[in-house]
Write a structure and sequence with these properties.
This protein is of the alpha/beta class. It is built from 6 helices and 15 strands. It folds into 2 domains: 144 residues, Rossmann fold; 75 residues, ACT domain (Alpha-Beta Plaits, 2-Layer Sandwich). The structure holds ribulose-5-phosphate.
Length: 236
């Protein structure tokens, strides 16, 4: 089975977690796109909050009812992908540049379920470059401070401004993304604290303590796992 087959299987399984009358947070990325398609096919009476304009476009094209995050008191269930899933369900997200809206939606949700193919599971976070969203004003100054903050955490790296097809990537909120090739993030909480203390950093892709469950697509089927299951999983 290809990674895309696994993403499809996990997206379709995740759609079965949704029930009528729910307010559902829709993630961003290729795995979440499978979720959105499967959810639209179920034709439930639900309202959805999208984590990006890309997901909003797909969801509304498929007939899902979208609402603004500010028009709901709480989101019942958010289902979203990840770039890396580490010990205790710590995550790196933001490969699709949607980390800010994703984190806002996750934090407004009673339950968050991470969906991914098995290749995303790692024993240590950091092989995937950590996305950091910064405001455009003064971003070169901000990234110097980010470099210093990461060095204080023992991570020597020069974050790179994200570009796609030769153009600088601008997020849905009009910001820039710097990708920090950390190698290994041994103390994610310290990195989170360091980045959060820097003016100009809007958000970062470390999602710590935001989910207690994940659906992982493996060659043997889709596994529904909790934090303890992520202590001893082999890399990949
Ligand atoms: C977007 C994200 C995605 O969830 C993450 O990049 C995983 O994407 P995919 O499902 O395409 O592998 O965080 O900002």
């Amino acid at each position: 089975m290809s990674d895309d087959d696994l993403k499809q299987a996990v997206g379709e399984t995740a759609a079965d977690l949704v029930q009528s009358d729910m307010i559902v947070g829709l993630g961003t990325g290729t795995t979440s796109a499978w979720l959105v398609r499967a959810l639209a096919e179920r034709r439930l009476d639900i309202r959805c909050v999208a984590t990006s304009t890309t997901t909003a476009t797909l969801a509304s094209e498929l007939g899902l009812l979208l609402v603004d995050i500010d028009d709901v008191r709480e989101i019942d269930l958010t289902i979203d992908g990840a770039d890396e899933i580490g010990p205790d369900l710590t995550l790196i997200k933001g490969g699709g540049a949607a980390l800010l809206r994703e984190k806002l939606v996750w934090e407004a949700s009673r339950r968050c379920v991470c969906i991914a193919d098995a290749s995303k599971v790692v024993t240590t976070l950091g092989a995937f470059p950590l996305p950091i969203e910064v405001v455009p004003f003064g971003h070169t100054t901000t990234v110097r401070r980010i470099t210093g903050g990461l060095a204080d955490c023992g991570i020597l790296t020069a974050p790179r401004l994200r570009q796609k097809d030769g153009a600088v990537v601008i997020t849905d909120s009009g910001n820039l993304i710097y990708d920090a090739h950390c190698g290994a993030i041994l103390d994610p909480a310290s990195v989170e604290a360091a980045l959060k203390s820097i003016t100009g950093v809007v958000e970062h892709g470390l999602f710590l303590g935001l989910t207690k469950e994940a659906l992982i697509g493996t060659a043997l089927g889709v596994e529904h796992l909790g934090p303890r299951d992520f202590k001893d999983l082999p890399n990949g």
